[in-house]
Specification:
Elements lengths: L15 H7 L2 H9 L2 H13 L12 H10 L5 H7 L11 H17 L3 H13 L3 H9 L4 H5 L2 H5 L6 H13 L4 H7 L5 H23 L10 H12 L8 H11 L5 H9 L3 H14 L4 H9 L4 H12 L4 H12 L7 H14 L5 H15 L6 H10 L6 H10 L3 H14 L7 H5 L5 H10 L5 H12 L5 H11 L10
Helix pairs in contact: 1-2, 1-3, 2-3, 3-4, 4-6, 6-7, 6-8, 7-8, 11-13, 14-15, 14-17, 15-17, 16-17, 17-19, 18-19, 19-21, 20-21, 21-22, 21-23, 22-23, 23-25, 24-25, 25-27, 27-29, 28-29
């Protein structure tokens, strides 16, 4: 019925490794029940080979750190991974290779694991991804431990103009300024304060000079010049995409007298000029925009088609919703697939109860043809939840189990909470162990306390110093005396 995930790096969802890679709550529960050697092997694979599709929005480190403690695992594998010969290779992807392992160590340090703290300190002084390790220590280590790292970190930068420039950039780009402040104020190393003060002052002066001397490309101040500027960037090698910037410029310079020129550009052969004009007309709510978008969406040029779909997706007017209903109801072969998809996404975000069947149909079609990790699923999953489409529960459960994205799984859980009466006694219990903060908070609100595991887990989350504030707030709401009436749900 459904397309399976095609990501070859992710194990099947029914295996222990697949559950842990996805960050599902059942992964922790199965690991604790599995033979310890098997659980440790799966955990090691996850920590040393980051399974996330997007490490910037998906969380795994606290999830793996908690399991690491539950299994009483050693740090030998992480140490070997961090200090392997691969870490010293130039041009390596050190962030993607070591970032998750360093974050896991950071959470272990927050649980007062002295060995994890020592390993982070050692890597901060000699590892390639030292900035990440330093940021982990900056929010957890004591002042004395951070001060001791100063000489070794500053020694990474030669005392030359180029070295000072690199040092200034490193201090400026750090997520946590605390170590740099401590080093600048360390009375035991006055030379650090002098050098850091000097490079900071030079960095401020250089930034001021760059701002004064900025000579970026600027279009002329007429509709034709803005469109030409967008097209010129498109025709450069490598290509420079100026369509969005050009559309913003058009909003400042275009008047009623330019309508004919903009409509001609939106129908014309120049790809970037067409894209800029389409976006401007859509943002302005021009009545001709819908027909122009429909025509451009069928264009074989990907730039024109993509610009048309993007322009329509930005619209939120009543007229746009009405046109989305027409497009969503069209026969399969009457319109480009992308246009039908973006129409369904608009109905999912802005439609009413009468659009439930269209949104559900688009959700089923997307999962069937593109699998449980398709980007287009995000608004559709939210949409069936918002519209309360109860018959969407089976496909939502499939997305929840199979997707490799913990963020999408959390959205599926939110939609199930609104559409599936069995959620509270089913997936909500598992979600208390999920890797995502928002999913754990949702579970804390919905999980049925008739399951004996639930109250115990809520109490542990409430007492966990590493747990996020939003989760603990939801947990305390369930554990408070006023919540007693909800205990049986």
């Amino acid at each position: 019925m459904f397309v399976d995930s095609v990501d070859s790096d992710i194990a099947p969802s029914g295996t222990l490794l697949g559950l842990l890679q996805r960050g599902r709550g059942d992964g922790t529960l199965h690991a604790l029940a599995a033979p310890r050697a098997e659980a440790l092997a799966a955990l090691r694979q996850c920590v040393l080979h980051d399974p996330r599709r997007d490490w910037q929005i998906e969380h795994r480190s606290l999830y793996y750190a908690r399991l690491h403690m539950e299994l009483d695992a050693s740090l030998d594998d992480i140490e070997e991974h961090l200090f392997s010969a691969e870490d010293a290779l130039p041009g390596g992807e050190c962030e993607s290779r070591t970032g998750l392992a360093l974050s896991v160590l950071g959470h272990l340090a927050s649980y007062e694991n002295a060995a994890a703290t020592a390993l982070l300190r050692r890597y901060a002084t000699s590892g390639a991804n030292w900035q990440w390790a330093l940021d982990e220590l900056a929010v957890r280590d004591e002042d004395a431990g951070l001060r001791a790292l100063g000489p070794a970190v500053l020694a990474r930068f030669p005392q030359t103009p180029a070295g000072d420039a690199e040092l200034a950039a490193a201090a400026r780009e750090s997520f946590e300024p605390r170590p740099w402040r401590l080093w600048a104020e360390d009375p035991a190393h006055p030379e650090q304060a002098a050098r850091l003060g000097r490079v900071r002052e030079q960095g401020c002066f250089d930034r001021w000079q760059r701002q004064l001397g900025a000579q970026g490309p600027r279009p002329g101040w007429s509709v034709r010049e803005v469109l030409d500027w967008a097209q010129d960037g498109y025709e450069q090698h490598p290509r420079v995409h100026r369509e969005a910037a050009a559309a913003r410029c058009l909003s400042a310079v275009a008047g009623p007298e330019d309508a004919a020129e903009l409509l001609a550009a939106a129908r014309g052969p120049r790809e970037a000029a067409r894209a800029a004009a389409l976006r401007h007309l859509a943002d302005r709510g021009d009545p001709d925009a819908f027909d122009l978008i429909e025509a451009a969406a069928a264009d074989p040029c990907e730039t024109a088609a993509g610009a048309a779909l993007s322009a329509f997706a930005r619209m939120r007017s009543t007229a746009a919703v009405a046109r989305a209903r027409q497009w969503a109801a069209a026969p399969d072969d009457a319109l480009p697939a992308g246009l039908r998809s973006v129409a369904a996404e608009m109905l999912a975000c802005c439609g009413g109860a009468q659009d439930a069947s269209a949104v559900l149909g688009a959700l089923r079609r997307t999962v069937r043809t593109e699998g449980p990790d398709a980007d287009g699923l995000w608004p559709l999953v939210d949409g069936v939840g918002r519209l309360g489409v109860e018959c969407a529960a089976p496909v939502l459960r499939h997305v929840y189990r199979e997707t490799a994205s913990s963020q999408l799984r959390g959205r599926a859980a939110g939609a199930l909470a609104l559409t599936d009466p069995s959620f509270a006694a089913g997936f909500a219990v598992e979600c208390l162990w999920d890797c995502e903060e928002t999913t754990r908070a949702l579970a804390a609100e919905y999980a049925a306390t008739g399951d004996e595991r639930v109250v115990e887990r809520l109490r542990r989350l409430a007492a966990d110093p590493a747990e996020e504030a939003g989760v603990q707030s939801a947990v305390r709401g369930r554990l408070s005396p006023e919540a007693g009436a909800d205990a049986g749900r």
